[in-house]
Amino acid sequence: MPKTVAKKELTDFDVKRKAVKLVISHLKKKLPKEDFDGSDGIVNWIEEFEIMLEKPEFVMIEYYSMRRELNDIIERTVDDELRNKLRDSWYSLGKALDKKLKRN
Questions:
Q1: CA torsion 55→58→59→64, rounded to 10°?
Q2: Which residues contact 87 (CB under 8 A, 6 or more apart)?
Q3: CA of 94: how far to CAs of 33, 35, 90, 104, in Å?
Q4: What SS3 state is found at 71?
Q5: What is the pTM for the complete model shown?
Q6: CA angle 53–58–62, rounded 5-degree value
Q7: Residue of 16, 104, 1, 3 whose CA lies nearest to 67
């Protein structure tokens, strides 16, 4: 007799976490391959965020705090093109944090 696998019920936090992970992966692709002014700040921010995403709990205050930190990094970015790309990611991160589970 085949085993039945219980489906994990998705929560709003699961949906937010998946959306945030997608934003972070897109953000990583936007970064230049070579070093740039301020690369340490954004790379460290991404690493810190990825560690936070691995935690089992989802604490919204931490995510909003990380979003504020990204805004600070954006304001210190000298390159206009990169700053605009980062700003797009900042907006996307906000939308990801607003996501909710679709209810029927």
A1: 100
A2: 74
A3: 26, 27, 6, 24
A4: helix
A5: 0.82
A6: 80
A7: 16
Phi, then psi, of 56 in degrees rounded to 5: -70, -30
- pLDDT (tens digit, 9 = 90+) per residue, 21-68? 999 999 999 988 888 777 888 999 999 999 999 998 889 999 999 999
**The two structure tokens encoding residue 68:** 């504020």
Paired tokens of 101: 């589970």
Residue type present at position 53:
L
- Determine contact, residues 63/91, Cβ cutoff 8 Å: no
DSSP state at residue 9 = P
